[in-house]
Write a structure and sequence with these properties.
By secondary structure, the chain is mainly beta. It has two helices and 20 strands. About 0% of the residues lie in helices and about 55% in strands.
Length: about 375
């Protein structure tokens, strides 16, 4: 019998260069991505009053340099994926998936938890230069663990997705738990038009039939950390470096998204409480939200450039809901020129920040950024 695995086809597809055996038992996809960014007066979001007083730090940098590898092995439904950040030598993702049935799938490894659409959507497929100011305090980011997920597709509007996961709860790259407590995560998503919506910014396809999602998610965790990022576990302003099991963090999120004829919308509303279990259960509650929309105006005005999208976002964050004056806000306007969809695009952004802390110190400021993102 002829061994068909010896015959391999090579092509370039949606996820980069693809190497596939003739019997489709094995698939290897390789993709690279570079992100170049120019920013002034600084690139980072201001977090404290002093951040507004710093000198101009105009910078040009390679913000991201990624290598992505994925595919399937032995069966088309036995999938794998890993992603490496070359500029920082960080292994971001490594996961194994069993996706044989639409209604029941399994994943294990390290990945971005599907808690928020803004964080879960790839940075290369965002509608703006970067995620909003509420991403930092509310993201669960990458965790290690296992999850069950799927799509429950009924008739008409009875269309849902679900995710439920058990996670270590100590962040990217941390292979050990600090105590006996795991992170528990759940998400339920309703697809009201009976079609599943991808986690991708902008309506590049100029969707002919409306598509939307309404989702609610929740997570609880006990660990030394009050926030997570690509770097792993960390601490929000005002919280000391934690001991094992010091902070109980409970979070919830309600989000919406919609696309139709070149118009796109998305929003998130977050609530988070941090309970210091080593200091008399002292509790801090915080809230945040953003709303974001974009439109290809060529759909309304034929003279408008077809590849140009205009988008806007407003975000507000309250680090402590008990202090009414304590808040931060961001308003951004973005112009996207798509050379080849999200694979090659140029984004120009202007942002205005407003800040007031609990001592009533107030400050505001502007930032401008220009970014080229290319995948191949």
């Amino acid at each position: 019998m002829k061994d068909t695995t010896k015959f391999v086809s090579v092509k370039y597809g949606k996820k980069g260069f693809e190497f596939k055996t003739a019997d489709d038992k094995f698939l290897l996809q390789i993709q690279s991505r570079l992100q170049f960014r120019l920013s002034t007066p600084t690139d980072q979001d201001p977090l404290t009053y002093n951040d507004y007083e710093t000198k101009n730090k105009t910078a040009f940098k390679i913000n991201r340099a990624r290598l992505k590898v994925g595919g399937h092995a032995y069966e088309t439904w036995l999938k794998y994926y890993w992603e490496f950040e070359l500029s920082q030598s960080n292994l971001l993702d490594f996961r194994f998936m069993i996706e044989k049935w639409e209604y029941f799938n399994f994943k294990a490894g390290q990945w971005k938890v599907e808690f928020t659409q803004e964080r879960f959507t790839s940075s290369g497929e965002q509608q703006t230069v970067e995620r909003s100011i509420i991403n930092r305090p509310f993201t669960i980011d990458r965790q290690q663990g296992a999850t069950i997920y799927g799509r429950l597709k009924g008739k008409g509007i009875a269309d849902f997705n679900y995710w439920t996961a058990l996670l270590t709860g100590t962040g990217r790259g941390n292979t050990a738990n600090d105590d006996g407590n795991l992170m528990y995560f759940g998400r339920l998503q309703w697809n009201p038009f009976g079609r599943e919506m991808e986690f991708e910014g902008s309506d590049l396809e100029h969707t002919q039939k409306p598509v939307a999602r309404i989702a609610a998610a929740a997570v609880t965790n006990r660990s030394p950390y009050t926030r997570f990022s690509q770097a792993g576990g960390g601490y929000l302003e005002g919280f000391e470096d934690g001991l094992p099991g010091q902070y109980r963090v409970n979070q919830s999120n309600i989000e919406t998204a919609f696309k139709y004829h070149g118009f796109s919308w998305q929003s998130e509303w977050h609530h988070k409480e941090i309970i210091d279990k080593l200091n008399s259960d002292n509790t801090t509650r915080m809230r945040g939200y953003y709303v974001q929309a974009g439109y290809f105006f060529n759909g309304a005005f034929k003279w408008f450039p077809k590849n140009l999208e205009i988008a806007a976002r407003h975000a507000t964050y309250k680090p402590n809901v008990k202090i009414s004056e304590n808040s931060q806000s961001e308003t951004s306007i973005d112009l996207n020129w798509f050379f080849k969809g999200h694979k090659c695009k140029l984004t120009a952004e202007g942002s205005y920040f407003d800040y007031q802390d609990k001592t009533l110190q107030q400050e505001s400021g502007w930032r401008a950024r220009l970014q080229l993102d290319i995948s191949f």
